[in-house]
Amino acid sequence: MTFRTDIEIAREAKKKPIMEIGAGLGIPPEHLLPYGHDKAKVSQDFIRSLDARPDGKLILVTAINPTPAGEGKTTTTVGLGDGLNRIGRRAVICIREASLGPNFGMKGGAAGGGMAQVVPMEEMNLHFTGDFHAITSAHNLLSAMIDNHIYWGNSLGIDERRVVWRRVMDMNDRALRDIVVSLGGVSNGFPRQTGFDITVASEVMAILCLSRDLADLQTRLGNIVVAYTRDRQPIHCRDLKADGAMTVLLKDAMQPNLVQTLENNPAFVHGGPFANIAHGCNSVIATRTALKLGDYVVTEAGFGADLGAEKFFDIKCRKAGLKPAAAVIVATVRAMKMNGGVAKADLGSENVEAVKKGCPNLGRHIANVKSFGVPVVVAINHFYSDTEAEVQAVKDYVAGQGAEAILCQHWAKGSEGIEDLARKVVALAESGAAHFAPLYPDDMPLFQKIETIAKRIYHADEVLADKSIRDQLKAWEAAGYGHLPVCMAKTQYSFTTDPNVRGAPTGHSVPVREVRLSAGAGFVVAICGEIMTMPGLPRVPSAEVIRINDQGFVEGLF
Question: How many other CB atoms sit within 10 Å of the CB of residue 551?
Answer without folding.
Answer: 6
